[in-house]
UniProtKB/TrEMBL annotation:
It catalyses: acetate + ATP = acetyl phosphate + ADP. One of its GO terms (biological process) is acetyl-CoA biosynthetic process. Pathway: Metabolic intermediate biosynthesis; acetyl-CoA biosynthesis; acetyl-CoA from acetate: step 1/2. The active site is at 146 (proton donor/acceptor). Signal peptide: none annotated. Substrate binds at residue 89. Mg(2+) binds at residues 8, 384. HAMAP family: Acetate_kinase (MF_00020). NCBIfam families: ackA. The record marks 178, 239 as: Transition state stabilizer. ATP binds at residues 15, 206-210, 281-283, 329-333. This is Acetate kinase.
Amino acid sequence: MSKIISVNAGSSSLKFQLFEMPSEEVLTSGIVEKIGFEDAIFTIKVNGEKIKKVLPIPDHTKAVSMLLEALVEYKIVNSLDEITGAGHRAVHGGEIFKESVPVTEDVVEKFASLNDLAPLHNPAGLVGYNAFKNNLPNCKHVFVFDTAFHSTMPKESYIYALPMKYYDEYKIRRYGFHGTSHKYVSLRCAELMNKKVEDTKIITCHLGNGASITAVDGGKSINTSMGFTPLAGVMMGTRCGDIDPAIVTYIMKKTGATPDEMDDIMNKQSGMLGVSGISSDARDIEDGCKEGNPAALLTAEVYVNRVINVVGGYYAQLGGADAIVFTGGIGENDTNMRKMICDRLSAAFGIQLDEVLNGKTRGKEVLLSTAESKVAVWLIPTNEELMIARDTYRLIA
């Protein structure tokens, strides 16, 4: 038996789950929010109950030390030496890292060299790693990359139609993200269908504030909607997704916007927020649709349109599909959005949704389609932390 902690460090947050492996029992979970502020929030689950504290947490090192002290204080572990492995979510592995790896000085150096590809995420991942390394000197560490699952894409899926010198010199290509989530739900879907993953064709829809869709053939990603950055693909909470690239230079010329300002417009002012003028939160859009708000209704229609365009393309690339999987905050909880997507796909795919079951199900693992449906529709809550723990346990055992 081994205790493995899964870590997801953001620029001002730290999510964690502690597992007993290989049984995969969750011993505790929690999150530290607003790191760097006087009113930071530390939350940990103890015996099924959440314990929450609001206090100053200046940096990730302090957040990690608080977390580890809490594990002993609440008797989740008797000693920190029981934690033999720490798996760290690493967002961007570029072309260097095509699978999860044990952390060495060389790995850290190579990972840091990719900071330009993910300036908000990779440095935060390193900060989290260093904080755990300093507090758990006897623990083995593993980096689990969001991009790794998509490293199986064929070249025609990831090359952009730009001069090849930009790929050769700067590695500008489609990388894809949410790979740990897409891997988990595709494996779980195959298991639920009692099939070997090698014998399946699955389209996984990770729909949340950030959203991506992946074509999974025999357990391998062959195409995904996010690209060089997480800005590409379908419409998201505040991200525009795919647009005509000439729009960027057109707006800059018309408004005098700088590159950084355009980046902010596309990443933080667009998507559901930009189209609706209401909110980036899909729950607010869902409420607006129920009220008949025209802006909310248009936002939902645009969102569905973008999703079915991608799903339809992947269905063709795969040569059909055994299943479509919904996951992520919207995929797991927005019953109306799921229905709209399935309704638009029903004629071409032969999908028959159990509308009563869909309408009452949020966040639970369930088959949403009827027995007559030609393509199965599954709701499978994602579990990236478990995938991180599995890879960590496998690599340090």
